Protein backbone atom coordinates (compact mmCIF):
# COMPACT_ATOMS: atom_id res chain seq x y z
CA UNK A 1 0.00 0.00 0.00
CA UNK A 2 2.25 2.82 -1.40
CA UNK A 3 5.33 3.65 0.70
CA UNK A 4 3.35 4.55 3.81
CA UNK A 5 4.50 3.07 7.13
CA UNK A 6 1.43 1.97 9.03
CA UNK A 7 0.71 1.51 12.69
CA UNK A 8 -1.92 -1.28 13.06
CA UNK A 9 -4.71 1.09 14.11
CA UNK A 10 -3.78 3.45 11.27
CA UNK A 11 -4.28 0.86 8.56
CA UNK A 12 -7.50 -0.28 10.20
CA UNK A 13 -8.82 3.27 10.34
CA UNK A 14 -7.90 3.86 6.70
CA UNK A 15 -9.81 0.74 5.61
CA UNK A 16 -12.79 1.92 7.68
CA UNK A 17 -12.56 5.21 5.84
CA UNK A 18 -12.45 3.43 2.46
CA UNK A 19 -15.48 1.32 3.41
CA UNK A 20 -17.47 4.54 3.86
CA UNK A 21 -16.63 5.73 0.33
CA UNK A 22 -19.40 4.76 -2.14
CA UNK A 23 -18.42 1.50 -3.84
CA UNK A 24 -17.95 2.71 -7.46
CA UNK A 25 -15.61 5.50 -6.25
CA UNK A 26 -13.62 3.38 -3.82
CA UNK A 27 -10.79 1.99 -5.95
CA UNK A 28 -10.42 5.02 -8.26
CA UNK A 29 -10.00 7.33 -5.24
CA UNK A 30 -7.74 5.08 -3.11
CA UNK A 31 -4.36 6.09 -4.70
CA UNK A 32 -5.20 9.79 -4.39
CA UNK A 33 -6.12 9.46 -0.70
CA UNK A 34 -2.99 7.44 0.00
CA UNK A 35 -0.86 10.06 -1.70
CA UNK A 36 -2.48 12.84 0.35
CA UNK A 37 -2.12 10.81 3.55
CA UNK A 38 1.57 10.10 2.82
CA UNK A 39 2.09 13.84 2.43
CA UNK A 40 0.40 14.43 5.78
CA UNK A 41 2.48 11.75 7.51
CA UNK A 42 5.75 13.18 6.13
CA UNK A 43 7.62 9.87 6.61
CA UNK A 44 6.20 9.15 10.07
CA UNK A 45 4.16 5.98 10.71
CA UNK A 46 0.45 6.56 10.20
CA UNK A 47 -1.76 6.06 13.26
CA UNK A 48 -5.56 5.95 13.52
CA UNK A 49 -5.48 9.44 14.98
CA UNK A 50 -3.51 10.75 12.00
CA UNK A 51 -6.07 9.27 9.57
CA UNK A 52 -8.84 11.07 11.48
CA UNK A 53 -6.83 14.29 11.50
CA UNK A 54 -6.32 13.93 7.76
CA UNK A 55 -10.06 13.56 7.17
CA UNK A 56 -10.83 16.55 9.39
CA UNK A 57 -8.18 18.89 8.04
CA UNK A 58 -7.51 17.89 4.46
CA UNK A 59 -10.72 16.67 2.83
CA UNK A 60 -13.21 19.04 1.17
CA UNK A 61 -16.85 19.35 2.17
CA UNK A 62 -19.31 17.65 2.01
CA UNK A 63 -17.07 14.53 1.92
CA UNK A 64 -15.25 15.67 5.09
CA UNK A 65 -18.35 15.74 7.29
CA UNK A 66 -19.73 12.53 5.81
CA UNK A 67 -16.50 10.61 6.40
CA UNK A 68 -16.09 12.09 9.87
CA UNK A 69 -19.53 10.77 10.74
CA UNK A 70 -18.63 7.37 9.29
CA UNK A 71 -15.50 7.25 11.47
CA UNK A 72 -17.48 8.20 14.57
CA UNK A 73 -15.94 11.68 14.78
CA UNK A 74 -18.09 14.60 15.89
CA UNK A 75 -17.70 17.72 13.77
CA UNK A 76 -17.12 20.78 15.94
CA UNK A 77 -20.42 22.44 16.86
CA UNK A 78 -22.46 19.51 15.56
CA UNK A 79 -24.79 19.50 18.56
CA UNK A 80 -25.80 23.08 17.86
CA UNK A 81 -26.53 22.44 14.15
CA UNK A 82 -30.26 22.90 13.48
CA UNK A 83 -32.05 20.23 11.41
CA UNK A 84 -31.60 21.02 7.71
CA UNK A 85 -34.55 22.69 5.98
CA UNK A 86 -35.28 24.74 2.89
CA UNK A 87 -35.14 28.31 4.21
CA UNK A 88 -37.90 29.66 1.98
CA UNK A 89 -39.55 26.45 0.80
CA UNK A 90 -39.42 24.61 -2.52
CA UNK A 91 -40.58 25.33 -6.03
CA UNK A 92 -41.80 22.81 -8.63
CA UNK A 93 -40.16 19.41 -8.38
CA UNK A 94 -37.10 20.74 -6.55
CA UNK A 95 -37.75 18.83 -3.30
CA UNK A 96 -38.32 15.59 -5.19
CA UNK A 97 -35.09 16.19 -7.14
CA UNK A 98 -33.21 16.91 -3.91
CA UNK A 99 -34.42 13.62 -2.39
CA UNK A 100 -33.50 11.76 -5.58
CA UNK A 101 -29.99 13.22 -5.40
CA UNK A 102 -29.65 12.01 -1.78
CA UNK A 103 -30.73 8.54 -2.82
CA UNK A 104 -27.29 8.04 -4.40
CA UNK A 105 -25.60 8.63 -1.02
CA UNK A 106 -25.06 5.52 1.15
CA UNK A 107 -27.52 5.33 4.09
CA UNK A 108 -24.89 5.88 6.79
CA UNK A 109 -23.79 9.19 5.31
CA UNK A 110 -27.11 10.47 3.99
CA UNK A 111 -28.06 12.76 6.85
CA UNK A 112 -24.67 14.45 6.90
CA UNK A 113 -24.86 15.04 3.16
CA UNK A 114 -28.44 16.27 3.53
CA UNK A 115 -27.33 19.09 5.82
CA UNK A 116 -24.40 20.11 3.64
CA UNK A 117 -26.31 19.96 0.37
CA UNK A 118 -29.27 21.80 1.89
CA UNK A 119 -26.91 24.59 2.95
CA UNK A 120 -25.58 24.83 -0.61
CA UNK A 121 -29.12 24.80 -2.03
CA UNK A 122 -30.20 27.58 0.33
CA UNK A 123 -27.14 29.55 -0.67
CA UNK A 124 -28.01 29.18 -4.36
CA UNK A 125 -31.63 30.16 -3.68
CA UNK A 126 -30.36 33.40 -2.08
CA UNK A 127 -33.33 33.87 0.23
CA UNK A 128 -35.96 32.64 -2.24
CA UNK A 129 -37.46 29.19 -2.68
CA UNK A 130 -35.15 26.42 -3.84
CA UNK A 131 -35.85 25.83 -7.53
CA UNK A 132 -35.30 22.89 -9.87
CA UNK A 133 -32.41 24.74 -11.57
CA UNK A 134 -30.61 25.11 -8.22
CA UNK A 135 -30.70 21.36 -7.63
CA UNK A 136 -29.59 20.58 -11.17
CA UNK A 137 -26.68 23.01 -10.75
CA UNK A 138 -25.60 21.29 -7.50
CA UNK A 139 -25.64 17.90 -9.20
CA UNK A 140 -23.57 19.20 -12.12
CA UNK A 141 -21.06 21.07 -9.96
CA UNK A 142 -20.57 18.79 -6.96
CA UNK A 143 -21.70 15.23 -7.62
CA UNK A 144 -19.05 12.97 -9.22
CA UNK A 145 -19.74 10.42 -11.92
CA UNK A 146 -21.27 7.83 -12.16
CA UNK A 147 -23.75 9.28 -9.63
CA UNK A 148 -24.12 12.51 -11.59
CA UNK A 149 -25.13 10.67 -14.76
CA UNK A 150 -27.60 8.46 -12.84
CA UNK A 151 -29.24 11.44 -11.19
CA UNK A 152 -29.49 13.56 -14.34
CA UNK A 153 -30.96 10.59 -16.20
CA UNK A 154 -33.54 10.15 -13.42
CA UNK A 155 -34.41 13.87 -13.60
CA UNK A 156 -35.02 13.61 -17.33
CA UNK A 157 -37.62 10.90 -16.84
CA UNK A 158 -39.10 12.20 -13.58
CA UNK A 159 -42.87 12.01 -13.78
CA UNK A 160 -45.36 14.63 -12.67
CA UNK A 161 -45.68 13.21 -9.19
CA UNK A 162 -46.98 15.71 -6.66
CA UNK A 163 -44.73 14.86 -3.73
CA UNK A 164 -47.02 16.65 -1.22
CA UNK A 165 -49.74 14.08 -1.98
CA UNK A 166 -47.31 11.28 -1.14
CA UNK A 167 -46.38 13.11 2.06
CA UNK A 168 -50.09 13.34 2.99
CA UNK A 169 -50.49 9.59 2.43
CA UNK A 170 -47.46 8.81 4.60
CA UNK A 171 -48.75 11.15 7.33
CA UNK A 172 -52.11 9.34 7.23
CA UNK A 173 -50.34 6.10 8.20
CA UNK A 174 -48.09 6.79 11.18
CA UNK A 175 -45.98 4.00 12.62
CA UNK A 176 -43.49 1.71 10.94
CA UNK A 177 -43.38 -1.37 8.71
CA UNK A 178 -46.87 -2.55 9.67
CA UNK A 179 -48.45 0.21 7.53
CA UNK A 180 -46.34 -0.15 4.42
CA UNK A 181 -48.90 -2.12 2.43
CA UNK A 182 -51.63 0.40 3.27
CA UNK A 183 -49.35 3.24 2.14
CA UNK A 184 -48.53 1.46 -1.13
CA UNK A 185 -52.24 0.83 -1.77
CA UNK A 186 -53.00 4.53 -1.30
CA UNK A 187 -50.16 5.57 -3.60
CA UNK A 188 -51.29 3.03 -6.21
CA UNK A 189 -54.85 4.41 -5.96
CA UNK A 190 -53.58 7.99 -6.29
CA UNK A 191 -51.37 7.47 -9.36
CA UNK A 192 -52.48 4.19 -10.88
CA UNK A 193 -48.96 2.85 -10.24
CA UNK A 194 -46.11 3.20 -7.75
CA UNK A 195 -43.84 6.01 -8.98
CA UNK A 196 -40.17 5.66 -8.07
CA UNK A 197 -40.18 9.15 -6.53
CA UNK A 198 -42.96 8.05 -4.13
CA UNK A 199 -41.06 4.90 -3.13
CA UNK A 200 -37.93 6.95 -2.43
CA UNK A 201 -39.87 9.29 -0.18
CA UNK A 202 -41.54 6.43 1.71
CA UNK A 203 -38.16 4.77 2.15
CA UNK A 204 -36.68 7.94 3.63
CA UNK A 205 -39.62 8.97 5.82
CA UNK A 206 -40.14 5.46 7.20
CA UNK A 207 -36.44 4.63 7.35
CA UNK A 208 -36.92 1.48 5.31
CA UNK A 209 -34.65 0.10 2.59
CA UNK A 210 -35.86 0.96 -0.89
CA UNK A 211 -35.19 -2.63 -1.90
CA UNK A 212 -37.83 -3.79 0.61
CA UNK A 213 -40.43 -1.52 -1.00
CA UNK A 214 -39.53 -2.84 -4.45
CA UNK A 215 -39.88 -6.37 -3.13
CA UNK A 216 -43.41 -5.60 -1.88
CA UNK A 217 -44.28 -3.76 -5.09
CA UNK A 218 -43.30 -6.73 -7.22
CA UNK A 219 -44.74 -9.43 -4.95
CA UNK A 220 -48.38 -8.33 -4.95
CA UNK A 221 -50.48 -8.23 -8.10
CA UNK A 222 -52.33 -5.16 -6.80
CA UNK A 223 -49.23 -3.04 -7.42
CA UNK A 224 -47.48 -2.01 -10.58
CA UNK A 225 -44.31 -0.01 -11.13
CA UNK A 226 -45.27 0.98 -14.68
CA UNK A 227 -47.07 4.20 -15.37
CA UNK A 228 -50.35 3.31 -17.09
CA UNK A 229 -50.63 4.37 -20.71
CA UNK A 230 -53.25 6.91 -21.71
CA UNK A 231 -55.11 4.52 -24.03
CA UNK A 232 -55.90 0.83 -23.80
CA UNK A 233 -56.61 -0.81 -27.16
CA UNK A 234 -58.07 -4.32 -27.14
CA UNK A 235 -58.00 -6.02 -30.52
CA UNK A 236 -59.92 -9.16 -31.30
CA UNK A 237 -57.81 -11.86 -32.95
CA UNK A 238 -60.74 -14.27 -33.38
CA UNK A 239 -61.20 -15.71 -36.87
CA UNK A 240 -64.39 -13.68 -37.52
CA UNK A 241 -62.55 -10.38 -36.97
CA UNK A 242 -59.31 -11.69 -38.50
CA UNK A 243 -60.84 -12.26 -41.94
CA UNK A 244 -62.67 -8.91 -41.85
CA UNK A 245 -59.50 -6.80 -41.42
CA UNK A 246 -58.68 -7.34 -37.74
CA UNK A 247 -55.17 -8.60 -38.58
CA UNK A 248 -54.45 -5.40 -40.47
CA UNK A 249 -55.56 -3.26 -37.53
CA UNK A 250 -53.46 -5.38 -35.21
CA UNK A 251 -50.33 -4.90 -37.34
CA UNK A 252 -50.88 -1.14 -37.37
CA UNK A 253 -51.24 -0.94 -33.58
CA UNK A 254 -48.28 -3.27 -32.99
CA UNK A 255 -46.06 -1.11 -35.21
CA UNK A 256 -47.12 2.04 -33.34
CA UNK A 257 -46.64 0.46 -29.90
CA UNK A 258 -43.17 -0.88 -30.75
CA UNK A 259 -42.01 2.67 -31.60
CA UNK A 260 -41.62 5.42 -28.97
CA UNK A 261 -44.55 7.65 -29.85
CA UNK A 262 -47.77 5.79 -28.99
CA UNK A 263 -49.13 6.19 -25.45
CA UNK A 264 -51.02 2.93 -25.85
CA UNK A 265 -51.31 -0.41 -24.08
CA UNK A 266 -52.20 -3.16 -26.55
CA UNK A 267 -54.22 -6.17 -25.47
CA UNK A 268 -55.24 -9.09 -27.67
CA UNK A 269 -58.30 -11.26 -27.04
CA UNK A 270 -59.74 -14.29 -28.82
CA UNK A 271 -63.25 -12.80 -29.08
CA UNK A 272 -64.86 -9.62 -27.83
CA UNK A 273 -68.31 -11.27 -27.94
CA UNK A 274 -69.63 -8.99 -30.71
CA UNK A 275 -68.65 -10.86 -33.86
CA UNK A 276 -71.31 -9.03 -35.89
CA UNK A 277 -69.19 -5.87 -35.50
CA UNK A 278 -66.10 -7.52 -37.05
CA UNK A 279 -63.43 -6.24 -37.13
CA UNK A 280 -64.12 -5.30 -33.52
CA UNK A 281 -61.81 -3.16 -31.42
CA UNK A 282 -62.26 -1.88 -27.89
CA UNK A 283 -60.61 1.46 -27.15
CA UNK A 284 -60.63 2.68 -23.56
CA UNK A 285 -63.65 0.48 -22.78
CA UNK A 286 -65.67 1.61 -25.83
CA UNK A 287 -66.44 -0.77 -28.72
CA UNK A 288 -65.70 0.28 -32.28
CA UNK A 289 -66.21 -1.49 -35.59
CA UNK A 290 -64.68 -1.24 -39.10
CA UNK A 291 -64.20 2.33 -40.34
CA UNK A 292 -65.09 3.77 -36.96
CA UNK A 293 -62.33 1.69 -35.36
CA UNK A 294 -59.82 2.76 -38.04
CA UNK A 295 -60.68 6.44 -37.52
CA UNK A 296 -60.40 6.20 -33.73
CA UNK A 297 -57.07 4.36 -33.95
CA UNK A 298 -55.70 6.98 -36.36
CA UNK A 299 -56.65 9.61 -33.79
CA UNK A 300 -54.79 8.06 -30.85
CA UNK A 301 -51.77 6.42 -32.50
S1 LIG B 1 -64.31 -12.91 -33.36
FE1 LIG B 1 -64.00 -10.82 -33.02
S2 LIG B 1 -65.54 -10.25 -31.71
FE2 LIG B 1 -65.78 -12.34 -31.94
Could you characterize what this model shows?
The structure is a single chain. This protein is of the alpha+beta class and 301 residues long. It has 4 domains: 8-79; 94-156; 163-219, no CATH class; 231-300, Glutaredoxin (3-Layer(aba) Sandwich). Helix content is 57%, strand content 7%. It has helices at 8-20, 23-41, 48-58, 63-70, 94-102, 107-125, 132-142, 147-156, 163-172, 180-191, 196-205, 210-219, 239-258, 290-300; strands at 231-236, 264-269, 280-283, 286-289. It has a 4-stranded mixed beta sheet with strand order 2-1-3-4, with helices on one face. α5 (94-102) runs parallel beside α7 (132-142) and α9 (163-172) crosses α11. The relative contact order is 0.07. The model has no long low-confidence stretch (mean pLDDT 85). The site of FE2/S2 (inorganic) cluster has 10 residues, from α13.
Concise structural overview:
With 301 residues, this protein is of the alpha+beta class. It contains 14 helices and four strands.
Computed Rg: 27 Å
Taken together, the total number of domains comes to 4
Helices, by number, come to 14
Helix content: 55-70%
State the distance separating the first and last CA atoms.
61 Å
Number of strands: 4
Uncertain segments of ≥5 residues (pLDDT<50)?
A: none
Which shape, going by the Cα principal axes? elongated
Assess the beta-strand content as a share of residues.
Answer: 5-15%
Order of helices and strands: HHHHHHHHHHHHEHEEEH
What's the mean pLDDT score?
Answer: 85
- Structure ligands: FE2/S2 (inorganic) cluster
